[in-house]
Amino acid sequence: MSKIKRLPDAELEIMNALWDADAPLTAAELETALPGPPRARTTLLTLLARLEEKGCVTRESRGGATSTPSP
């Protein structure tokens, strides 16, 4: 039986922002979509990389990084 894992709060905030978006978001768009005080760009990219490793998001290259929730 597989175990359900809980995302850390920071990663969950990112996923909620991506789920609420009408289309894939660039890192810059995601920064503005997140609640609370702004995060450092490096912190946001690290969190996105962790979510990508977990299979929660995918990355597309369109002249810049874009993140979308994985199906």
End-to-end distance? 21 Å
Structural class by SSE content: alpha+beta
Largest sheet: 3 strands, antiparallel
Q: Low-confidence segments, ≥5 residues, pLDDT <50?
A: none
Number of helices, where a helix is a run of at least 4 consecutive DSSP H or I residues: 3
How many beta-strand elements?
A: 3
Tell the overall outline: globular
Q: Name the helix and strand elements from N-terminus to C-terminus, one letter apiece.
A: HEHHEE
Largest sheet: spatial strand order: 1-3-2
How big a fraction of the residues is strand? Answer: 15-25%
Percent range of helical residues: 40-55%
How much is the radius of gyration in Å? 12 Å
Mean pLDDT: 87
What oligomeric state best describes the polypeptide chains here? single chain
